[in-house]
Write a structure and sequence with these properties.
heterodimer, A: 330 residues, alpha/beta, Rossmann fold, Hypothetical Protein Tm841, Chain: A,domain 3, 2 domains, six-stranded mixed β-sheet, 8 helices, 14 strands, 33% helix, B: 216 residues, mainly alpha, Serine Threonine Protein Phosphatase 5, Tetratricopeptide repeat, two-stranded antiparallel sheet
Chain lengths: 330, 216
């Protein structure tokens, strides 16, 4: 597949995209040093800061969720590559200056975890109040070795709301953990993306195939099969997710559908329709939902389906106001 | 007199390694695209440029341990994901050995060993998992054995580079068990691991530099 993108020098793509992003939302976000996005107006001092880290090329993830009620800081890396530990250390130090502590939310990917662990060692040596929460909800891998996918957005939302309301670092970390351990995600891909720096496809998939379990960077999944209908795909994926979560009648679920970049909203609505029908048949309550592009992989076609078991407090925090450029609630 | 290297030779080692990786960057990216997202060449090229600059621009009289620690931290800041975090850990770890202003063969062996320990602290990958460790571990161990047997620095580094190359070549017949590539399982057979290949280039670059130093 030939790459066809509007680019300048690929070397500068991350700097340029972040500059464009903050110029587009100057009332909400700004750059703090190269590659670090912070709120234009910091939250009141004394409140816990939420910090996340992750590679670029997944726009609007992750910096699109910096804003009131969500993240305070997003440390962006190069395309599909974790930011280095020094930038993470700087961001955590800065967050602790104004806040009563910092909660570092990390998606389970090799490079991100490496940088986060190195950074955590550094800030702990300085006795800074920082806690780390890892999101690892991709059920295509075995427990203990699961990637962090779109579920991080739900963690940003509920922990961000708790922090905004003045919760302590321990309380914010507990909320984040609770959300993270009650969510499950599965991804499906139908067409590859090209890497903006190399111009090459990041994986290969036959014209008539789809792959369930595909990661955010073209990491292979386990379920390569002939392309199925929207209803069949929704059914296959939801069944796996419900089983893994151990969802039962009466449970209250949040469902997120995350387009990978080139899958239309039309398709996502078809998928969602079937998900809602199936939940109703199973007498599982669909209490909250969101459909959109949260974490993309360039022009990859496919989507991630995330379900999460919610309790009263998580729903209440989910309903709190948020005002990030790519996630708002009145 | 005991054979030693100082900041000048250290600078040449990293400059030559950076040059080799620059020359091979497309091949590294191609290997990576078999099992990963295809950016290993560009990532390593950027990381090596940072490393070359950090060492080349450090004051000539600075303690070499300090030079390596700072250079390693700079590489981690190069945003190269896992590759630069691990390469950075290797270099900062080399700086954990107290070196002073010059290094003999035994001290360099110790320095490479503390570098390796630092990487091992960060990753669960071990030789056989089809990662950079398949080249790095034999390179460091071979250098140590060559140093202990009384070989010169350049001979020991040549042995280490050969061991790294053999290790990298051996990854062709391995199935990935670590990193993003592990999700591909048997599909990774037949391709050398990009990380192991770049480690082999690093040690070959060191060896080329030290051979040239010896010549002159």
């Amino acid at each position: 597949m030939q790459m066809k993108k509007f680019l300048n020098d690929p070397k500068n793509v991350v700097r340029e995209l972040l500059e464009g992003y903050v110029l587009a939302y100057p009332d909400k976000v700004k750059l703090s040093g190269a590659g670090t996005v912070v709120r234009a107006a910091p939250k009141a001092s004394g409140k816990v800061r939420l910090v996340t880290i992750g590679g670029s090329g997944h726009e609007p993830g992750l910096s699109g969720f910096v804003g009131k009620g969500m993240l305070d800081v997003s440390v962006a890396g190069e395309i599909f590559a974790a930011p280095g530990a020094p930038k993470c250390v700087d961001a955590l130090r800065e967050a602790c200056k104004e806040g009563s502590g910092a909660l570092l939310i990390v998606l389970n990917h090799g490079g991100d975890v490496l940088s986060a662990n190195i950074a955590m060692e550094m800030v702990q040596r300085e006795n800074l109040p920082v806690k780390m929460v890892l999101t690892e909800e991709d059920i295509s891998g075995p427990v203990g070795d699961r990637r962090g996918l779109v579920g991080c957005v739900a963690v940003y939302k509920v922990a961000g709301a708790a922090a905004e309301l003045g919760a302590s670092l321990d309380a914010c970390a507990e909320i984040a953990h609770r959300m993270a351990s009650n969510m499950r995600t599965l991804a499906v891909a139908v067409r590859t993306a090209t890497h903006p720096a190399t111009g090459q496809p990041i994986f290969h998939l036959g014209d008539d195939e789809m792959e369930i379990g595909m990661g955010q960077h073209g990491e292979a999944g386990t379920g390569r099969m002939k392309l199925k209908s929207a209803d069949e795909t929704a059914e296959i994926m939801l069944e796996k997710l419900l089983e893994d979560l151990g969802a039962k009648e009466g449970d209250e679920l949040l469902v997120l559908l995350n387009g990978a970049g080139a899958t239309t909203l039309m398709e996502l609505f078809l998928i969602f329709r079937r998900v809602a029908q199936l939940l109703e048949i199973k007498k599982i309550k669909l209490v909250r939902s969101r459909i959109g592009e949260f974490i993309t992989t360039q022009e990859q076609a496919g989507f991630q389906m995330m379900i999460a078991r919610m309790d009263e407090e998580l729903i209440r925090l989910w309903d709190e106001p948020a005002d990030a450029p790519f996630f708002a609630r009145p | 007199m005991k054979e030693c290297i100082s900041r000048t030779e250290l600078g040449r080692m990293f400059a030559d390694a950076a040059q080799l990786i620059r020359n091979q960057n497309e091949i590294l990216s191609q290997l990576d695209s078999q099992c990963g997202d295809g950016d290993h060449g560009t990532t390593m090229m950027r990381a090596m440029e940072v490393l070359e600059d950090a060492i080349g621009s450090s004051p000539i009289d600075r303690d070499l341990s300090e030079t390596l620690r700072q250079a390693g931290w700079s590489v981690m800041g190069a945003d190269g994901g896992a590759s630069s975090a691990l390469l950075g850990s290797f270099i900062t770890g080399m700086g954990d050995t107290e070196l002073g202003g010059a290094v003999d063969c035994a001290a360099l062996a110790k320095c490479l060993a503390t570098g390796l320990q630092s990487v091992q602290k960060r990753t669960k990958a071990r030789p056989g998992d089809k990662t950079m460790m398949d080249a790095l571990v034999p390179a460091v161990e071979t250098f140590g054995a060559a140093a202990a047997s009384g070989k010169s620095i350049s001979e020991a580094m040549n042995d280490a580079a050969a061991a790294a190359e053999a290790g990298a070549a051996s990854t062709k017949s391995l199935v990935a068990r670590h990193g993003r590539a592990k999700y591909l399982g048997e599909k990774t057979l037949g391709y050398a691991d990009a990380g192991a290949t770049s480690m082999a280039l690093l040690f070959r670059g060191f060896s080329v530099a030290l051979a040239a130093v010896k010549e002159s």
